[in-house]
Design brief:
- The structure holds 2 protein chains of 2 kinds.
- Chain A is α/β, with parallel strands linked by helices.
- Chain A contains 9 helices and 14 strands.
- In chain A, the strands form 3 sheets. In chain A, strands 6-7-8-3-9-10 form a 6-stranded mixed beta sheet, sandwiched between helices. A 4-stranded antiparallel beta sheet of chain A has the order 2-1-4-5, with helices on one face. In chain A, strands 12-13-11-14 form a 4-stranded antiparallel beta sheet, covered by helices on one side.
- In chain B, 67% of the residues lie in helices and 6% in strands.
- Chain B has a 4-stranded mixed beta sheet with strand order 2-1-3-4, with helices on one face.
- The chains are: A alpha/beta, B mainly alpha.
- Chains A and B meet through strand 6 and helix 2 of A and helix 1 and helix 7 of B.
Chain lengths: 298, 436
């Protein structure tokens, strides 16, 4: 899925400025940015709730067709529902709106309710369910029609750890079955472990996109964490800086071309046992703050 | 096909969830009962109040020899010779016990003073009025005889004047009858007015519910906003029709049942009012009843349904647009709804004046302009409206419906996704021109 030069304005406010990036097929993709960055607007353009002012979205190399839209499952951040309806009829209704037959919608609803340990909810009114239970129902409604593309906007907000884990596992399962998943969130730490690729947007502008590992490598600062047994005598010089030192560990930043081995030699020569040597990669949060600050200064 | 299918799904959800509600069922069942209850309440009260009463009469004047037994009242002159004081103490226990003692003293037929009635319980007003009127009848008879006159001669002195109101303008040539025409006019105009308010508001609430609960975003990712809006309007419109049909059906059944039970009482009530000197009123009612059958009821029903649907669609679309402007609380919406509510209110005021004066320019324009015509035109039709005017009006109605739906859908599709800030009128105007 490829986005080329997407623009969208609401009156004088430009919500999205020339957004270009692509989502690899069958990936778990992170759409990241702080609140108000334009994530929801972008999603609404994908789901055709809005039309973009300019730009193209291509799906499998072609412009999106109307039949592609039934392949999308979208779970908005605000988990709305018809509170007076029963879980079963609510699911069937939403399934049928997505083009399932009544029988199929019922069958799939029952299957998913069973899978998420919620078989006995069928005749319960949605307003009688807890928030977490409502959210599970919402998730089921999103995946009911076997979408090829799943868009989840803050899917874990309001879920307890147990249910979050349950949903997370289902997301992995769907991923394994070949579903492409777009994950929209402002909590970047949540995404690092799940997503392979991301795009980061801020105030309608793309900040960065690509594979998480590559991005991290690009912004790494040659920081290492060392844990040891013994008392090393180490003096910072032009080869490295000591950022932090504790009794049994320290954080070191290598300068210039200084190699890791040359740092480690200092320990080995002093006969200090090394228990752990690990590169510290910047978190997406740090990269984001770094990039946004740079952009502001420029 | 798919688009139709989805719209149909929305229509059926809107319909089923509402028709299934307890409040709908109760209102549908109780509506006609309430309506009929109000109309037969006087009869029930009168019947319950009266029962049958035996009245002992002591006539010292010798003028009243007999009184007609009717409306549950039975008169007896058996103990006429006994002294009043004695009867006063024991009328309760004489024979099977009398309910009251009517005492007519020595008097002249043209000066009937001093008539008294004794009863252990307070005598009802209707009973007293009735007895007064039958005694008056008796005395009138005597007085006429003394003057050597009869009733026919008296009636000749003041003949009843009726004007036959023939409508000659337009193609319709029929017996005009302002009473019945007004009755139909008011009834139809008023019902449509109520319907526009009730069901219009229902559409608005429905849209607000979807917006504030945020279900809208899920639905809108499956169907177009226009489909959702139309589905809602049509679904709720069907709820309204269902209620009408149910009411019509129930009222007919109730009428048949109650007609059997209360028919005789009703006839008696009419006798009573006739006896109270309501001859003239009765004549109007009878005349009206006769000309009722001269009115083309089915034609009115068709007009009623046309304007009910047209008016409903126009106002429902407007109310849907207003609902889409809702914030998280209701206060704003009530402000936005004000102009539309005022428009409906204006229609009913125009309707009321038009029924009095059906052939004025105001009546004409109000029956053409689609915002007022749904209430005004059905009220006007019983007075005779030329066919071309009806066709023009319906054409405008359809045009108005397409226009408002177009405008409303443009406001709606943007409004339903706007959260947070208060929406200004200028922005709403802009939305109408956004590219879809």
């Amino acid at each position: 899925m490829t986005f080329k030069g997407i623009n969208k304005s609401f009156g004088e406010v430009q919500a999205l400025k020339d957004i270009t990036f692509s989502i690899p097929a069958n990936s778990i993709f992170g759409l990241l940015g702080p609140n108000g960055a334009g994530k929801t607007t972008l999603i609404r353009i994908i789901t055709k709730i809005f039309a973009a002012d300019s730009g193209q979205i291509q799906f499998a190399g072609e412009n999106m067709k109307s039949s592609d839209y039934s392949q999308i499952g979208y779970m908005p951040e605000e988990k709305g529902m018809y509170k007076k309806m029963k879980v079963g009829e609510h699911l069937i209704y939403l399934g049928r709106l997505k083009g399932l037959t009544k029988v199929k919608a019922k069958e799939r609803s029952e299957y998913w309710l069973h899978k998420l340990n919620a078989s006995d909810w069928w005749n319960k009114k949605l307003e009688d369910l807890s928030k977490g239970m409502q959210q599970k129902t919402q998730f089921i409604a999103t995946v009911l029609h076997d979408p090829k593309l799943l868009i989840l906007d803050e899917p874990f907000s309001g879920l307890d750890p147990l249910n979050a884990e349950l949903i997370k596992n289902e997301i992995y399962n769907l991923h394994k079955q070949g579903v492409t998943i777009i994950f929209s969130t402002h909590r970047m730490e949540q995404v690092e472990e799940i997503c392979k690729n991301i795009v980061l947007i801020n105030k309608g502008n793309k900040v960065i996109d690509g594979e998480v590992a590559n991005i991290k490598n690009r912004f790494k600062e040659n920081k290492y964490k060392i844990e040891f047994t013994g008392v090393p005598v180490l003096i910072a010089n032009e080869a490295f800086d000591i950022l932090e030192q504790n009794e049994n560990s320290m954080t070191v930043k290598l300068n210039g071309d200084t190699s890791r081995n040359s740092l480690l030699q200092n320990f080995i020569q002093q006969n200090v046992e090394i228990n752990l040597f690990q590169e510290i990669l910047p978190s997406l949060n740090e990269i984001f703050i770094h990039l946004v600050n740079d952009a502001n200064h420029a | 096909m798919l688009i139709m299918h989805k719209t149909w799904l929305i229509i059926s959800r809107e319909y089923i969830t509402r028709v299934r509600k307890k409040s709908f069922i109760i209102f549908t069942l109780l509506g006609p009962l309430l309506f009929l209850g109000i109309s037969i309440l006087p009869i029930i009260i009168a019947t319950a109040n009266k029962g049958s009463q035996n009245i002992l009469v002591k006539d010292d004047s010798g003028l009243i020899t007999a009184l007609p037994d009717t409306a549950g009242l039975y008169f007896n002159f058996k103990y006429n010779t006994q002294p009043l004081e004695e009867l006063k103490t024991k009328f309760n226990s004489l024979d099977d016990g009398y309910d009251a003692l009517l005492y007519i003293p020595m008097m002249l037929p043209d000066a009937p003073y001093g008539i008294e009635i004794y009863s252990s319980d307070q005598m009802s007003l209707t009973t007293r009025l009735y007895i007064e009127s039958i005694i008056a009848d008796k005395l009138e008879e005597i007085n006429l005889k003394n003057q050597n006159l009869n009733k026919q001669q008296i009636l000749k002195l003041r003949p009843k004047v009726t004007i036959d109101d023939k409508v000659t303008s337009g193609e319709i040539q029929k017996e005009g009858d302002a009473v019945v025409a007004s009755f139909f006019g008011y009834a139809m105009g008023f019902i449509i007015y109520i319907v526009l308010l009730i069901y219009g508001t229902m559409v608005m609430r429905g849209v607000m519910e979807e917006k504030t609960s945020r279900i809208i975003e899920v639905i809108i990712s499956s169907v177009k906003p226009f489909q959702l809006m139309m589905g809602k309007i049509l679904g709720i419109g069907l709820v309204g029709l269902t209620q009408f049909v149910a009411w019509g059906f129930l009222i007919t059944i109730l009428n048949i049942i109650l007609g059997g039970v209360f028919g005789s009482q009703l006839a008696e009530m009419q006798n009573v009012s006739a006896a109270q000197g309501g001859d003239a009123d009765m004549l109007v009612i009878t005349q009206a009843y006769e000309s009722l059958s001269a009115h083309p009821i089915y034609y009115y029903l068709l007009i009623f349904l046309t304007y009910f649907l047209g008016g409903y669609f126009i106002y429902a679309a407007l109310f849907a647009a207003i609902g889409s402007l809702a914030g998280d609380d209701d206060t704003d919406v009530q402000m936005y709804a004000m102009p539309v509510t005022l428009l409906i209110l204006a229609s009913i005021f125009i309707m009321m004046s038009v029924v009095q004066q059906p052939h004025t320019p105001l009546a004409f324009w109000a029956s053409i302009i689609p915002f007022t015509s749904p209430v005004v035109m059905p009220a006007l039709v019983p007075f005779g409206v030329p066919t071309w005017q009806i066709i023009l009006s319906i054409g405008m109605l359809i045009g108005g419906f397409i226009f408002t739906t177009f405008i409303a859908s443009r406001i709606y599709r943007t409004g339903i996704l706007m959260y947070g800030k208060k929406i200004k009128f200028r922005e709403v105007i802009k939305w109408m021109f956004y590219k879809g």
